Amino acid sequence: MPSDSAAAVSAFVEGAPPGELAEVIAGSAKIYSILEIRPGLLDLITPAFQKYNEEQLTTVKLPENSKNVLISSYNSLGDGRYYDTETQRSFSFDHQTQKASDVQPYTPDSEHTSLISSLLKSLSTHASEHYPSATTTVCAPSPSSNTITLHLVSNKYSPANFWNGRWRSTYHFFPSPPTLTGCINVDVHYYEDGNVRLTTAKEIKELTLDGVVKGNDERAMAAEVLRKVEAVERTYQEELNRGFAALSEGSFKGLRRQLPVTRQKVEWDKVGGYRLGQDIGGGRSR
């Protein structure tokens, strides 16, 4: 059973905001002191690093390639190795440093190879049209699996402006009968003069794809899958936009007055010289 220290540090790791895992570890004096005092603790929390990277669809560049590939439990080969369908490469991944190494040729074995290829092409086109810096993959958990998993992750990091964000989409496509399920996750962290974080999850319940299996046209099937994906994601983005507007005009406004009771902004650089009754209250000092 993990120690209390390991459990506490694991919670920090698993809850790290997008693009801030290294900062969460290095920037916390308490965590850092625990790791120095107990070097073996780092090994105890390795599962937390793996869980974070796989759930967050962490992206990494392969040493021989400028293209990003992603990490998930669905393209895992076990023992810290993963594969990428498009580049047909497998690689070792260090969950603590988030670095890839030992790249080797790898051809995924699946009875849906042709369909996976069509889905990957359609998903890549969809991602490039709608998301900046998106990374995608399509894979089958096992050669005989009747499920094909589609991943899309788009990261936007702006630490100079004190915010980072991540969009994650995961879909499970069942070719026969053709149905689609999935989940969309959005995680945004804003930390200038404060700490605000938005995390949302949208479950995609079973969607039926009608009329796409006639003649076993896999390109038509892939196109229909992505048509559903695009519609779902467009609808969800519209829901988020309405939610942001409601928060801005409603809940956030209700948290505090826009101006003090004097209807004037406080000059904070002069706050040390204010006399409460005269300068803020507007009356004369006694």
Break the fold down into its secondary structure elements and pairings:
Layout: H1 4-14, H2 21-26, H3 29-37, H4 41-44, H5 46-55, E1 59-61, E2 68-70, E3 76-78, E4 81-84, E5 89-94, E6 99-105, H6 113-130, E7 134-139, E8 148-158, E9 163-175, E10 178-190, E11 196-208, H7 218-255, H8 276-280
Antiparallel strand pairs: 1-2, 3-4, 4-5, 5-6, 7-8, 8-9, 9-10, 10-11
Helix pairs in contact: 1-5, 6-7
Termini separation (Å)?
67 Å
- The number of E-state strands comes to 11
Strand content: 25-35%
Radius of gyration: 24 Å
- What letter string, H or E per element, gives the SSE order? HHHHHEEEEEEHEEEEEHH
Helix content: 25-40%
- Briefly note the structural class of the backbone: alpha+beta
Low-confidence stretches: none
Outline type: globular
Instruction: Characterize the biggest β-sheet.
Output: 5 strands, antiparallel
Strand order within the widest beta sheet? 7-8-9-10-11
- Total helical elements: 8
Mean pLDDT: 85
Key terms:
alpha+beta, four-stranded antiparallel β-sheet, 8 helices
Characterization of the model:
35% of the residues lie in helices and 29% in strands. The chain contains 8 helices and 11 strands. It has a 5-stranded antiparallel beta sheet with strand order 7-8-9-10-11, covered by helices on one side. A 4-stranded antiparallel beta sheet has the order 3-4-5-6, with no helix packed on it. A two-stranded antiparallel sheet has the order 1-2. The chain is globular.
Summed up, what is this model?
The chain is an alpha+beta fold. The chain has 8 helices and 11 strands. It has a 5-stranded antiparallel beta sheet, covered by helices on one side. A 4-stranded antiparallel beta sheet has the order 3-4-5-6, with no helix packed on it.
